[in-house]
Amino acid sequence: MAKNYFKSYIWLLETLLTQGPQTLKEIKERWRDSIINENNKELAPRTFANHVAAIADIFGIDIVCDRHTNTYYIENMDDIGENRIKEWMLDALCLNSLLNESASLRDRVIFENVPSNHKFLATIIQAIRDSKKLKIRYKSYRSSEEISMTVDPYFLKEFKRRWYLYGFKGDADGLHMMALDRMARVEDLDEGFSLPKEFTVDDYFRGIYGARVYPNMKRELVKLKVYGTQVQYFRSLPLHSSQKEVETDKNHSIFTYFLTPDYDFKQDVLSFGDKVEVLEPKELREEMKGIVKSLSIRYK
Q: Are residues 128 and 187 in the same domain?
């Protein structure tokens, strides 16, 4: 696929997403003024039709014409909202398109760098889409040796500026989590695989806080006491999807969660300093107390 065509697809999607239904004349006028149109070419009806067909094939997004108004619009908008991967991809690509059209903003809109974004991400996404096995050379931080494995790529997850692939290696250990930044090589294979019909990502991560999923992880009720203005931040950006505010006072609020209080959860709670206190369960409170005590010794 030519690079300029891909930019055109994203431009067309971004136009319809932000401007709403458009006539072909309006789309052609916007195209004429777009920075993506480097050669100042007119958007021919046949080219437009090819773009619509390519967008349906690549993104699974249908652009159709309302014959009553002669406007083009995205027909399956509801599907986009229900598909988190598609929604993320469109958000990222459309934002990139917008910034490309506004070159002067490039130094004024700052993103966090995700190193593994550029390592094998496209290859893995394509393998997931086509249900093709991957051959991966991988070196864990816990091992000095690089290993080679064949994986059924189930899904991807971004967490704390790292991308993780979850895949099945054919053993009895279930799904394996692999960080993209620890992959030395990724090759797509001609051999296909079938995702189990009963498998869903939502079920797999139900009650999980971080990226790690271990057998028999214990999900339990966790109660946090949040102080001062930190309460507002918790309300606007919940720590976990199970968050509930069960008590509110002048100086604090109490939030409950049903999740696995794993390493990542403990680290995030500690990052709030004295603004967040673990109340329950008792075992977790004692563990956090021990960590705080060890920290105080470090800083003597």
A: yes
Residue 76 belongs to a domain with what CATH number? Answer: 1.10.10
Q: How far lies 20's CA from each of 17, 26, 60, 63, 71, in Å?
A: 6, 11, 18, 12, 9
99 and 138 within one domain: no
What is the pTM for the complete model shown? 0.65
| Helix H or strand E segment including 167 | strand 162-168
Q: What angle do CA 105, 121, 161 make, to 5 degrees?
A: 60
Cα angle 35, 38, 40; round to 5: 100
Asked whether residue 271 falls in the same domain as residue 246, the answer is: yes
DSSP 105-126: GTTTS-----GGGGSSHHHHHH
- Cross-strand bridge partners of residue 200: none
**Which tokens sit at 136?**
């991966």
Per-residue pLDDT tens, the chain, 300 aa: give them.
444 577 788 788 878 877 889 999 999 998 988 877 777 889 999 999 999 998 888 777 889 999 999 999 988 776 655 555 556 556 665 555 555 555 555 566 666 666 665 667 778 887 888 899 999 999 888 888 888 999 999 998 888 888 899 999 887 678 889 999 889 888 889 899 998 888 888 888 888 898 888 877 889 999 999 999 999 999 999 999 999 999 999 999 999 999 999 999 999 999 999 999 999 999 999 999 999 999 999 988
Q: How far apart are CA 270 and CA 289, in angstroms?
A: 10
DSSP-assigned letters across all residues of 233-294: HHHHS-SSTT-EEEEE-SSEEEEEEEE---HHHHHHHHHTGGGEEEEESHHHHHHHHHHHHH
Phi/psi-derived region of residue 175, left when phi > 0, alpha when psi is between -120 and 50, beta in every other case? beta
